[in-house]
Amino acid sequence: MEKANLVGTPLDPGVTLEPNPDGNVGDRSNSYARLIGELQFLTNATQPDIAFTISWLSSYTANPTMQHVSVLKHVLHYLSGTRSYSIIYNNVLCYTPGWAQGSLM
Asked: What's the structural domain count of the chain?
């Protein structure tokens, strides 16, 4: 992936995903499902910018088509170009004031 064509967005704006027209019974033990799971971990841990794309692709996990695999490769090209990006958390205590009703009667 070092010499991959880099892209600027995790999802091409003109993409419309559709279910597999063959209607095959899918299985969730495919490599597509495994990669989606790993990218969902990245979404939660370090890459919130790919959350929408991965969430959308995960709805086709049981029976993906080559179009879904192509979009997944697009995400990998995007991630290849954003290796130097990072999230920085400050050690600042954040206090959010709120209220709670003590009596439910």
From this structure: 1
Give 22-65 pLDDT, tens digit per residue. Answer: 766 666 668 999 999 999 999 988 889 999 999 999 999 888 88
Domain membership of residue 11 (yes or no) is no
CA 70 to the chain's CA centroid:
14
What is the extent of the structural domain holding 58? 31-81
Residue 47 in any domain: the answer is yes
- Count other Cβ atoms within 10 Å, centred on residue 68: 21
Report the chain's mean pLDDT, rounded to a whole number: 82
CA–centroid distance for 38 within its chain: 9
For residue 61, give both structure tokens.
């996990």
CA 47-82-53 angle, 5° bins: 45
pTM score, whole prediction:
0.76
Residue 51 domain-assigned (yes or no): yes
Q: How far apart are CA 61 and CA 81, in angstroms?
A: 25
User: Could you give the CA distance from residue 39 to residue 43 in angstroms, rounded to a whole number?
Assistant: 6
